[in-house]
Structure formats: structure tokens, C-alpha cells
Design brief:
heterodimer; A: alpha+beta; SH3 type barrels; five-stranded antiparallel sheet; 8 helices; 16% strand; globular; B: alpha/beta; Nitrile Hydratase, Chain A; two-stranded parallel ribbon
């Protein structure tokens, strides 16, 4: 979707504010949000793609101003509701609905080391054969889906060169919407900075994006 | 989807998280003690100290450096670093000719396995918007001025690959051992917004 989350190349968003000696969490609730997401994962089995899409649908004014972990909280609440794990009335009352049987937590202290550091699950064996090889000239497709995509606006229609093939991964653009994993090759694609931004860019600089076969055509 | 006003969790995020947690505990989904342990893991187990160890090893061991740059997963496994999506790590090396900078313009993708959770500025709109269009301006804001003939490569983390910058080893560090070298490797130098510290400044800011 052409939302405010797709920020590459925008101006006017202010100076970069670096906080010296920044703590991992600024308040206990921030850590609690991540932990709740991890502990709820086995109940819902949502994908990272769905998570990212739901965060993208936060109201633009909120996306630009609400603290990061508050946006995660908003997104997790949506995921929990989508998965049918909590109801509207429970969110309103803060109490389980009448007649709800109490469950047993799926993650206990003994499971934490395994759950917290779990390996990536988006890589797939097999899948479609690669459409491109390193060195191939490509052009990023000019697509503007209203749903989730990992092809940023600033690269659409631009010419680049395949730098390397990273192997086969789930395709987020469909997976985020329950339309299948469509596993396919992901490549680092090198775009000259001047191809993306014009003459204002330094002549030898470049931007590398990781893109899927379905984002690319031969050039 | 913009229906956040439809539920009645309190507006203060701390209170909202508390209300949500107590609901989930009452329904039996989560164990508060496991939540404590998860938070502690994020605060202590992962962080830039892990990446600094990887970089210091690459500085002293040419074979390890080659493996790290061609197959980072294997290099990390050799150091006993696994999980946290380390299987999809890619290491890119800064040299006198090339400077690498990492960003995620679409969200907040960051190499948790070697750097832990990202700092606020990395996830912020100013950094995400400008790193790709004006990397030299961004670097100047971080106090890094590169010669014009240095080629800048910006890595936009749009997929599940995660990028670690191997900074240049600072001059004057020739006689140092791995632990002393690791102390020179800052978080920002592994994102590309900083350089490794010279040895005499090692007692300074940890960023």
C-alpha cells in the first residue's frame, strides 16, 4: 500500500535524534509488549508479513507520532482479535467473556530460550527456479497494490542489476493477505543512486534492495 | 482497519499493556513469569556486544573474515552464535574505497542476532526517509565525513536478510587482542552510521 510507512526518499521529517546510552526499553511496558507477542505466538501462528501489514494500516497521524512499542501494541491487539483469541467485549471489560474455559499457557520459563531466539521461518526449500542470475539487468515493476508489498515506491520502474541470489523465501505480498506463500527467489538488486534520485546523487553511490522474482522483469 | 477507537483499553500505553496482560493471563494464554524471562532475554542476551565479538574476530583472523563475508551463518555458528534469525545474516565490509550503511525504509528490520533490538533513531521517520536519498547528509549528522571518492552502498532491508557492517579496523590498534579490539567496535559502526573508535578513545561513549 502507498502508505506513510513507505518513507524512503521523503523530506521534511526532521533531524535524526540520537539518545546517548539509550536503554533497550525505556519503560517496563515496552518490554512487556514484545514478550506478550512472543508468548501469544503459538496461539495464533500469524506471519511477520501479517504483522507488518497491520502495522501499516495504523492511521497515518498515529504511525508518525505514536511511540514504536505502542504501535506494536496496537498491532498485536489487532492480530489477537483477527485470530479470535480475544473479543471486543473482553477488550472493553478487561475480563474474560462468561463461559470461557481457562487455558494452559503454551510458553513457560523453560521454553523461553527456544522461543525468544527462534530461527527464521520465511526461508523455503524448493520453490520456483530463479528467474535471474547475478549480473542480469532488471527493472522493478511499476505496481501499486492497495495491500502489503515489500517493493518500496522509490524503486518502482527503476533499473538495477542483480547482485546476488539469496535463495527461496515466502512472498510477503501474498502471504500477508492469506493468499499463499508463493515461495520464490530473493535477490539483492543494486540500483545506482542516480537512477533513483537523479543528478543530485553522488555518481558512484548505490542502494541495494532485497526483492522477489515477482517484483522484477528483465531489462 | 483504522478502528483503534473501538476498544476501551486505557489511553496510557503502560496501563493498556497492563490491562491486556491481565486479560491474557486470566484467559490462561500467558504465564507472567515467562514474560519476565522473555524481557530479560531481550535486555541481556542479545545486543551489540555480540556483533563486536564477531567484528573483532574478523579483524584478527583472515579465514574467519572470508567466511563471514561469504557465508555469515557459518561464521556465526563457528563462534557459537545461533538463533535470532542469524541464518539470514549478510556481512558487508567497509574499506578505504567503500562505505556501507544499513536501513529499513519500510519498517524496522535490524540484525537482532548480532546487534539486539534497534535504537529509537534507527526506527524513526527521519532516518528511514533520508538514509537512501541522502546518505552523506545522514552520515554528517552522525559526525562522519567521508571523502567524495568513497563509494557509499546503502542496504535497504526489504526482505528477511539482515545486514551487519564490518567497520574498518582503526589505525593504532595493531597490537591489541580480540577483547580490546571488541571494545573499539561501536553499535553505530556496525550499522554504518559510525566508525570504529581509535584505541585511545575506547573509554568514551558506548554508542
Amino acid at each position: 500500500m502507498n502508505g506513510v510507512h513507505d518513507m524512503g526518499g521523503m523530506h521534511g521529517l526532521g533531524p535524526i535524534e540520537v539518545e546517548p546510552d539509550e536503554p533497550v526499553f525505556h519503560a517496563p511496558w515496552e518490554g512487556r509488549v514484545i514478550a506478550l507477542g512472543d508468548a501469544m505466538g503459538p496461539w495464533g501462528r500469524w506471519s511477520v508479513d501479517r504483522f507488518r501489514y497491520l502495522r501499516e494500516t495504523i492511521r497515518p497521524a498515529d504511525y508518525l507520532t505514536k511511540p514504536y512499542y505502542e504501535q506494536w501494541l496496537m498491532t498485536f491487539v489487532r492480530l489477537f482479535r483477527e485470530a479470535g483469541l480475544i473479543s471486543e467485549t473482553e477488550l472493553a471489560s478487561g475480563r474474560p467473556d462468561a463461559g470461557e474455559a481457562k487455558r494452559e499457557p503454551k510458553i513457560r520459563i523453560a521454553d523461553v530460550a527456544r522461543v525468544a531466539g527462534r530461527e527464521d521461518t520465511a526461508r523455503r526449500e524448493g520453490g520456483a527456479p530463479p528467474r535471474f542470475r547475478p549480473g542480469d539487468a532488471v527493472v522493478a515493476r511499476n505496481i501499486n497494490p492497495a495491500g502489503h508489498t515489500r517493493l518500496p515506491r522509490y524503486a518502482r520502474g527503476k533499473h538495477g542489476v542483480i547482485d546476488r541470489d539469496h535463495g527461496v523465501f515466502v512472498f510477503p505480498d501474498t502471504n500477508a493477505h492469506g493468499e499463499g506463500e508463493r515461495p520464490q527467489h530473493v535477490y539483492s538488486v543494486r540500483f545506482a543512486a542516480r537512477e533513483l534520485w537523479g543528478e543530485q546523487a553522488a555518481p558512484r553511490d548505490s542502494v541495494y534492495l532485497d526483492l522477489w522474482d515477482d517484483h522484477l522483469d528483465s531489462a | 482497519m483504522n478502528d483503534d477507537h473501538r476498544h476501551d483499553l486505557p489511553s496510557d500505553p503502560a496501563l493498556r499493556v497492563k490491562a491486556l496482560e491481565s486479560l491474557l493471563v486470566e484467559k490462561g494464554y500467558v504465564d507472567p513469569a515467562a514474560l519476565d524471562a522473555l524481557v530479560e532475554t531481550y535486555e541481556t542476551k542479545i545486543g551489540p556486544h555480540v556483533g563486536a565479538r564477531v567484528v573483532a574476530r574478523a579483524w584478527v583472523d583472515p579465514d574467519f573474515r572470508r567466511t563471514l563475508l561469504s557465508d555469515a551463518k557459518r561464521a556465526l555458528t563457528d563462534l557459537g552464535i545461533t538463533g535470532w534469525r542469524s541464518a539470514n545474516l549478510v556481512a558487508v565490509e567497509n574499506t578505504a574505497q567503500v562505505h556501507n550503511l544499513v536501513v529499513c525504509t519500510l519498517c524496522s528490520c535490524y540484525p537482532w542476532s548480532v546487534l539486539g533490538l534497534p535504537p529509537t533513531w534507527y526506527k524513526s521517520a527521519p532516518y528511514r526517509s533520508r538514509a537512501v536519498i541522502d546518505p552523506r547528509g545522514v552520515l554528517r549528522e552522525f559526525g562522519v565525513e567521508l571523502p567524495e571518492d568513497v563509494e557509499i552502498r546503502v542496504w535497504d532491508s526489504t526482505a528477511e536478510l539482515r545486514y551487519l557492517v564490518v567497520p574498518e579496523r582503526p589505525p593504532g590498534s595493531e597490537g591489541l587482542g580480540e577483547d580490546a579490539l571488541a571494545a573499539l567496535v561501536t553499535r553505530d559502526s556496525m550499522i554504518g552510521t559510525g566508525l570504529a573508535r581509535p584505541p585511545d578513545a575506547a573509554a568514551g561513549s558506548p554508542a
